Amino acid sequence: MSLHVIMFSLLAILAIATGVLLVTRRNPVSAAVSLILHFFALSGLYLTLNAQFLAAVQILVYAGAIMVLVVFVIMLLNLGKEQNMRENFNPRTAITIAMSAALIMQLVLTFTGNPTGKNQLSAASEKIGSPAEIGNILYSTYIFPFEAISLLLLVAVVGSIILAKRTVDK
Amino acid sequence: MPQNIPLEYYLALSAIMFVIGAAGVVTRRNAIIIFMCIEMMLNAVNLTLVSFSSYLGDASGQMFVFFVMAVAAAEAAVGLAIVLSLFRSSQTVYVDEVNLMKW
C-alpha cells in the first residue's frame, strides 16, 4: 500500500466525517470548526493531487479569511442561546436523508460504472501545480478573467459595506 | 486495496461531499449554516476540477479552482453582510421565520 493510498483514505474519511458534522451540529460555532477541519482535509487532498499552490491558497483563503469572517458573524449575532428552539427531527429531514442516499448511490455508480482507466496522476501534474506554472498561465492565458475577478472583488467589498452599514436614524 | 488511486475515487468522494452539502442546505434553517454548506458544495466541485486537472495533465482545471475561490470569497462577504442586515431588521437568522418577500 503506497503512501498515496494511505493519505487519500485518511483524508477522505476526515473530509466526509467533518462534512457530516457540519450538517448535523446544532451549535453554529462547532459547525464552523468542523468546516475548518474539512477545509484542511481538502487541502491535504489537493496535496495528494500535486496541486501545491491550491493547497496553500485553500488554507489561506478558506480557513484563514472566509471562516474567520463566518466565525466573527456568528459571535457578533450571539446565536448560542436560541439554538435548541428549532431543528428537531421531522419528516423533511427523513426525506432529505433518503434522497441524499439515492443521489450518492447514483453519482457513485455513474462515476465508477465506466472506468476511465486513469489510475495514476499524469506526469505533467508535478509541474502544473507549482506556483510558478500557475502564475505563468494566470498572467498570460487567463489575464482577462483575472482582471474581471479583481473588479468583482471590488464590487463585493463596496456592496457588503453598503449592506452591513447601519442606516442613519433621522 | 489498490496500489494507486483511480480518478473515479476522487470523483466519488467529491460527489459524496456535494450531496452532504446539498442535504445541509435543504434541512438546516440557520442561514449561516446554510451558507457554510454552500461553501462545502463549492469545495466539492473544486476537488473534481483539481483531480481532473492532475489526472489529465491540464492546468486549466486549477485555474478554474482559483477563480471559484475568488468568487467564493466575494460571495462570503456579500452573503454575511446580508445575514447581518437581516438579523438587524428581523432579529432572526432562521430562514423559515423570514417573510420579507412574502405578499
Describe what this molecule looks like in 3D.
The complex is a heterodimer of chains A (170) and B (103). Chain A is mainly alpha-helical and 170 residues long. Chain A has a domain at 1-83: NADH-ubiquinone/plastoquinone oxidoreductase chain 6, subunit NuoJ (Four Helix Bundle (Hemerythrin (Met), subunit A)), CATH 1.20.120. Chain A is 74% helix and 0% strand. The radius of gyration of chain A is 21 Å and the shape is globular. With 103 residues, chain B is mainly alpha-helical. Chain B has one domain: Helix Hairpins (Orthogonal Bundle). Chain B is 76% helix and 0% strand. Chain B contains 3 helices and no strands. Chain B has helices at residues 7-27, 31-56, 60-90. In chain B, helix 1 runs antiparallel to helix 2 (31-56) and helix 2 (31-56) runs antiparallel to helix 3 (60-90). The longest helix of chain B is centred in the last third of the chain and has 31 residues, at 60-90.
